[in-house]
Design a protein that fits this description.
Blueprint: H1 15-18, E1 22-30, H2 38-52, E2 57-66, H3 95-102, E3 111-114, H4 124-136, E4 140-143, H5 163-196, E5 208-214, H6 218-222, E6 226-232, H7 236-249
Parallel strand pairs: 1-2, 1-3, 3-4
Antiparallel strand pairs: 5-6
């Protein structure tokens, strides 16, 4: 990978001495719109990314999406959920637009920064695939929560040390994927237990109605929240029973 400032004449001079700023693209992502507030999450991510960059780096493009990080890469960056929010960041596109521009010879940036690697993807495979595609295009992927490369170190031909940072990044990616899977497993187990105890979720189906009771958790009960169990509807219930009899007992089509 060759940076623009390497054509300044003095390859041993610090970057800031060349007077050429390092152009960086910012990559952000927030979860589905019913789980997070993109108007707060995305500006926070951008703020943290900007603060982590060395003084000689400047963000020149903003790419972000409002979507799940567990989606297949081919489906990423194609949604329009961000249009439902008044997000105070001019958007240059999503992850697909970022990858497409990274491969162009006239791209505006030589590196990409995100707040943390789990913002790139919640699946390790897709996260490393995106990193690899950027690397093949000659674009460095940075993360605000990771140590920044020493851009001021004179470039004497020695390769940038990346073994330990790569290990740390892979561990964080694995932890991020584990966290999501663990939460899904715990949530599903809790949902099963909730159902086995006779509690209902959502609108009662035909033939039943919800009998509400105060929430067993004191804090939620103080907010007026309730839980409900299904009980037969006095009018619809007998109809469901009759339908079952006609179909299951009398075998009618």
């Amino acid at each position: 990978m060759r940076f623009p400032w390497e054509d300044s004449g003095d390859i041993d001079a610090p970057i800031e001495a060349t007077g050429i700023a390092m152009p960086v693209a910012w990559l952000g992502r927030t979860s589905t719109d019913d789980q997070q507030d993109p108007t707060l999450s995305l500006p926070r991510q951008l703020h943290n990314a900007r603060d982590a960059l060395p003084a000689q780096c400047t963000i020149v493009a903003h790419f972000y999406d409002v979507e799940s990080g567990r989606m297949d890469l081919d489906a990423r960056g194609r949604g329009k959920a961000h249009e439902a929010f008044d997000i105070s960041i001019a958007r240059d596109g999503g992850i697909q637009d970022l990858l497409a521009e990274a491969k162009r010879p006239d791209r505006r940036f030589v590196a990409v920064i995100c707040e943390s690697v789990e913002r790139v993807a919640r699946r390790t495979y897709f996260g490393t695939k995106i990193e690899y595609e950027l690397e093949q295009a000659g674009v460095l992927l940075l993360a605000a929560h990771e140590p920044m490369p020493d851009f001021d170190r004179p470039r004497t031909g020695r390769a940038r040390k990346c073994a330990t940072p790569t290990l740390a990044r892979r561990v964080k990616q694995a932890v991020a994927e584990w966290y999501v899977l663990n939460m899904l497993e715990l949530s599903w187990d809790a949902f099963c237990e909730h159902t086995e105890q006779g509690w209902n979720v959502g609108k009662p189906c035909y033939g039943y109605r919800a009998k509400k009771t105060p929430h067993p958790v004191a804090a939620k009960r103080a907010e007026g929240r309730t839980k409900s169990r299904l009980i037969p509807h006095p009018v619809e219930g007998p109809t469901v029973t009759k339908i079952f009899e006609l179909r299951a007992v009398r075998r009618l089509g």
